[in-house]
Write a structure and sequence with these properties.
The protein is α/β, with parallel strands linked by helices. The chain has 13 helices and 22 strands. The strands form 6 sheets. It has an 8-stranded parallel barrel, surrounded by 4 helices. A 6-stranded antiparallel β-sheet has the order 15-16-17-22-19-20, with helices on one face. It has a two-stranded antiparallel sheet with strand order 3-4. Helix 4 packs parallel to helix 5.
């Protein structure tokens, strides 16, 4: 796989590293503005291969590197069916590796940090593989059915309760009702501490709503004793609203929102932005390893690919992008079957565009924190939202979205209250180009099909 040909020059890469190191000398930018590159290990290959992907991510001004579960899997081979918590999946280790892989992991994580990337681990504590030794060693840690068999976790589609997905290769942990709670919770705490010592700086908490809030609070407190800047991000996709709200006050720093599915019309997305913002700030994304590829859904529409990434950047506190999005990959990532040979020929290359959007988010304070969003206009083709910062409510900007991918849309600037000559128009994806700081020259702004712009 010849990756370097896809990457920017070494000079640009060095410049990015210097900028990020300077930022870390103040308040670590990773804490205030998480911009996350999801390195899906099944596609990326073995750990020695990950470094080139990490350099690529750093060149685009990402500051976090989220790696899906890399622990030793059970019989299904699924990344999320963990059999051994202190061994690395051999698929991610070079052929000459003779130990459990933890030493190589530690070295790799420190190389990521040298690039200005904070590594994030997948923390899966609501289930294990059915063939995990803990099933026999600590049966009281698991839920059992009326026949005495360990039960498998399942998910109910919130839009259609008749649709239930059961993961038969998994055994569900009884984190709340076990008679051996102290030892079980201590097991998870020691796991968190171990991987913090190796070099992880944060955790994506898989199916966080399926784990007792008190356990998360305990783990966050324990983790802070090792790493005060540790970050916990709650994955709650597919949960009921009440289940997500139950995590309020636990200590999560971020949760992942559902803005990817917003059609720019219905009220639910802005309502959730307000309601869930009481729990924690949120992370947007245009696609994830759990969804179909956006390029596949749109038949490779590059304009929508740009629009959805830019929207994720300006909508909430942070954003995340999976590996391959920048190249318009169409094959869905699979936690069991994806291999490095699934690396695709790029449909297009958005590397430079993504770098500029990330820089806008990192450098402009209006897009730091969750902010306050208010819908100003929502017509057939046009959405206008006002965005205010949490720290300075008088700092206001506007997000303009052309919802139509086939026709232009017009914005009358006289309809935007508070706009003055100190504001400038940033066209985030005008004819495929990023145009910053364009002055207002007339009374209307014409947006290209699927264009998104911001007024700052």
């Amino acid at each position: 796989m010849n990756l370097p040909a896809l990457f920017p020059t070494a000079i640009l890469y060095i410049k990015v590293v210097v900028i990020q190191l300077v930022s870390k000398s103040l308040i670590p930018v990773q804490l205030e503005v998480p911009v996350i590159y999801n390195l899906f290990p099944r596609l990326a290959g073995t750990m020695p291969d990950w470094l080139e992907h990490a350099k690529h991510a750093a060149s685009m001004r990402f500051n976090w590197l989220f790696i899906n579960s890399i622990l030793y899997p059970g019989f299904s081979g699924s990344l999320y069916a963990v059999k051994h918590h202190y061994r690395i999946n051999p698929e991610f280790l070079p052929a000459n590796n003779n130990d459990n892989g933890l030493n190589l992991l530690e070295q790799t994580l420190h190389k990521f940090q040298d690039l200005g990337l904070w590594p994030m681990m997948d923390l899966v504590i609501n289930h294990t593989a059915r063939d995990c030794p803990l099933v026999q060693e600590h049966p009281d840690w698991y839920l059992h059915n009326e026949h005495g068999e360990v039960t498998s976790p399942f998910a109910v589609d919130p839009d259609d309760p008749s649709k239930v997905t059961v993961w038969g290769d998994l055994a569900e942990i009884n984190n709340s009702g076990t008679s051996d709670k102290a030892e079980l919770w201590n097991y998870w705490a020691e796991l968190v501490k171990h991987y913090l010592h190796l070099g992880f700086k944060g955790f994506r908490c898989d199916a966080a709503y399926k784990v007792p809030a008190q356990l998360w609070q305990y783990l966050i407190e324990q983790a802070k004793e090792i790493e005060p800047d540790v970050v916990f991000m709650a994955e709650t996709l597919g949960s009921m609203e009440s289940e997500t709200l139950a995590l309020r006050g636990v200590g999560f720093h971020y949760l992942f929102n559902s803005s990817k599915w917003w059609d720019f019309n219905q009220a639910w997305c802005l309502n959730q932005h307000d309601e869930f913002g009481k729990i924690a700030a949120s992370i947007s994304f245009p696609e994830t390893h759990d969804t179909t590829r956006l390029a596949a859904d749109t038949c490779g529409n590059e304009a929508i690919q740009r629009q959805r990434y830019a929207f994720a950047a300006v909508f909430s506190a942070g954003l995340m992008m999976p590996i391959g999005y920048e190249f318009g990959f169409r094959k869905r990532l699979n936690v069991v079957t994806t291999q490095p040979t699934d690396w695709e020929k790029p449909s297009f290359d958005l590397t430079n565009f993504i770098r500029k959007i990330n820089e806008l988010k990192l450098e402009h304070s209006l897009f730091h924190g969750e902010g306050h969003l208010r819908q100003v206009e929502n017509g057939d083709n046009l959405l206008v939202m006002e965005r205010q910062t949490e720290q300075s409510p008088d700092q206001t900007g506007w997000i303009l979205v052309n919802k139509n991918c086939n026709a232009s849309a017009s914005v009358n600037i006289e309809d935007i209250s508070g706009l003055n000559e100190q504001h400038s128009l940033y066209r985030l994806c005008r004819d495929g180009n990023y145009i910053p700081g364009e002055p207002f020259s007339n009374q209307a702004i014409i947006l290209d099909p699927a264009e998104i712009a911001v007024i700052l």
